[in-house]
Amino acid sequence: MEDAVKGARRYSSPLRHEQAAATRAQVLAAARELFTAQGYPATTVGQIAAQAGVSVDTLYATVGRKPQLLREVVETAISGTDRTVPAEERGYVIALRAAPGAVAKIRIYTDAIATISPRTAPIFAALRDASRTDQSCADLDLEISKRRADNMLRFAADLRATGELRPELTDRFIADTIWATSGWEHYAQLVTGRGWTATQFGDYLRESWTRLFLASI
Fold it and tell me: In 9-84, at which residue ranges do the beta strands (DSSP E only) sit?
């Protein structure tokens, strides 16, 4: 009898984890859809729970309250997974740091931006809108912006280490240029506003950065 109970526990634990993960994914998908469609202020936790097919209590237990929901939606949009992934652990960051030359590093990063931006731009726009009236959202928007700026400085240093950059350009100039041109606002201007594809946006960044930053171009 005792062995049977232990066996049941071994089988039920993975099942519970799978169910919890599925519920979390449903909640985040519903939050993402509603936040981007009608905005953060107009979206209620009850609406998210109803769309996800769960109770409000289950939503709270699975992800958290509304500010935490938005944070998780932002972080998972950035990572492309169901969890937060630090920049240094993302596949494209590992690849670009291992790449031997500046041209390859820029190509890897701009390809990643073209892949990531379609899912991040709408939620970043919702976050920026929410930050006008909600302090927790404003704090998150500022945190993400600062984190991006710090990551751009690391990328500039990676490029500098190749010895291929124009010597008169500082790392700060390079980082700020990358920060501005790869941001969701610029993506929205060209893709949403002018009908570009995400691939065209990535190609434009690659061509622009290569010509602007590298000494031999």
Answer: none
Contact between residue 201 and residue 117 where contact means Cβ atoms under 8 Å apart: yes
- DSSP-derived secondary structure for 77-120: HHHSSSS---GGGSHHHHHHHH-SSHHHHHHHHHHHHHHHHHHH
CA–CA gap between residue 124 and residue 120 (Å, rounded) = 6
Using alpha carbons, list the distances in angstroms from residue 31 to 28, 183, 210: 5, 22, 38
19, two tokens: 């169910």
The span from the CA of 124 to the CA of 18, in Å, is 29
pLDDT in tens, 36-78: 999 898 999 999 999 999 999 999 999 999 988 999 998 888 8
98, 90, 121, 95: which is closest to 108 by C-alpha? 95
The pTM of this model reads 0.83
Residue showing tokens 């991006």: 148
What the block records as the tokens of 182 is: 């790869």
Residue 188: closest CA among 128, 131, 112:
128
What is the rounded CA–CA span in Å between residue 188 and residue 173?
23
Strand partners, 191: none
Token readout for 74 is 């932002």
How far CA 156 is from CA of 79, 191, 209, 217, in Å, comes to 21, 25, 11, 17
User: Which residues neighbour 52 within 8 Å (Cβ) at sequence distance 6 or greater?
Assistant: 23, 26, 27, 29, 30, 31, 59
